[in-house]
Write a structure and sequence with these properties.
Length: 119
């Protein structure tokens, strides 16, 4: 199990940028695939971006491709989400999640950080 704490959310105008961070506790962080998800009011939580345990593979939702970049620093137990050219429809609570690669998918979640994009 790993504990996750997100930070970096806030209010930004459309076209602006934010970088989210997710600090993980535990010595096995480098063995987890990591992901970012988001949930807008009244909507389901959706996948945004994922990164493999080594950082060598990334994937993105179509809605954020070319604007968002996921990365990780295993020495710092941290995963990042750089968000550029933000749009009002990116407004949501953003969650960090960890997949321990046991076949059960993402099992550990952070508390979330609010991102609000004004038009």
């Amino acid at each position: 199990q790993v504990q996750l704490v997100e930070s970096g959310g806030g209010l930004v105008q459309a076209g602006g940028s934010l970088r989210l961070s997710c600090q993980a506790s535990g010595r096995t962080f480098s063995s987890y695939d990591m992901g970012w998800f988001r949930q807008a009011p009244g909507k389901e939580r959706k996948f945004v971006a994922g990164i493999s345990w080594s950082g060598g593979s990334t994937r993105y939702a179509d809605s954020v491709k070319g604007r968002f970049t996921i990365s990780r620093d295993n020495a710092k137990n941290t995963v990042y989400l750089q968000m550029n050219n933000l749009k009002p429809e990116d407004t949501a609570v953003y969650y960090c999640a960890a997949d321990p690669l046991t076949g059960r998918g993402y099992g550990d979640w952070g508390q979330g950080t609010q991102v609000t994009v004004s038009s």
